[in-house]
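Appendix B. Raw example, untouched.
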Amino acid sequence: MNLRHILIAEDDPRDAKLTMAALEEYNLANKIFIVHDGEQALDYLYCREKFEGRTGGNPVAVLLDLKMPKVDGLEVLKVIKSDKSLKTIPIVVLSSSRETPDLVECYEHGVNAYVVKPVDFGEFAKAVKQLGIFWAAVNEPPPDTGKDETLI
């Protein structure tokens, strides 16, 4: 079974809650999985630790915060984009950083989009809704090859 779902890697509970609230309007919230650090994001993608029994294949997109504990978002991006079974997953960085080095490094490592988190809730909700609709409903993900692509 290949469930179309989105993975959110966000350590700030308020931002995670706002993201979920924005996606609920389009009935996408039940297709969202949230992890709170980069290590959990990788465990989720590789079906390790508490995600060992996870089914549903790869997410259709990962919304990734850069500044997270344990493993930062840039390192998560590097791992995903260097792994043949994960590199086709679209990665959207949601960060409060507008710093040029952050933008350049993310794009050098294959990020699909970089969105600066607006401070205003209305703007943030609008941006998240647009991302959710595009990645979960409009974009056509790579076909399931029949292989279990999320295991190492």
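End of appendix B.
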